[in-house]
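Dear colleagues,

As part of the handover before I leave the project, I'm documenting each prediction I ran so the next person doesn't have to rerun anything. This entry is a single chain, and its sequence is reproduced below.
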Amino acid sequence: MPPADAPTPPPLRFQPMAPPDAERLEAARKLFAGPCDFVKGVVAMDGLPAADRPEVCFAGRSNVGKSSLLNALTGRKGLARTSNTPGRTQEINYFALGGLEGGMGYLVDVPGYGFAEAPVAKVQAWQALLRAYLSGRVTLARAFVLIDSRHGVKPADEETMALLDRAAVTFQAVLTKADKLKPKDRDRAVEGLGRTLNAHPAAYPEVIVTSSESGEGIPDLRAVIHGLMAP
């Protein structure tokens, strides 16, 4: 037991997301069942598409499961390439949700941060592009920061969260690969993540627990994205 005079930890503001209502889930299902077209891969800020619609981005350490999550969200196995090689995503990849013409918004897959099997200079260039994008894209409605539920928050995640705090960009934590954990370990992962998020003013106060394998949390995440993009 902790000593009697030990400081009391601050209360957790961050809890697993409550299930959306049936109407929101159905509207989101219809949106993601429609077109989702690859727009372009971007290697510099001047190559970004016109800022004419809201967008959400997916950021996370290399091999956290970003591509698998995007494929699960859209129900398309090959929308985003998956690989066992960390650092495979080397560009900011844009996908038009609802189609290229008149779509509702963009899904954005950004380069994984942290470890990557690539030359140091190239990794540094990706990281510079990521920082510029996260701090300077006016139509970025929310960043989803993906955390591997088995490993928790790492220093590279903290750095990205701090960057989003400074840029005043709201971000929401998404736990991935939840099917790999037993229930008690999952609860521990959510609690640990919540304690980290307490220190970040830009963090949205709901954690989304997902599994691309089982589909857990995928409809909930779709509903959140629909809400950010719906007029």
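Residues 51 and 138 are 7 Å apart (CA to CA). The chain has six helices and eight strands.

All the best with the project,
I.
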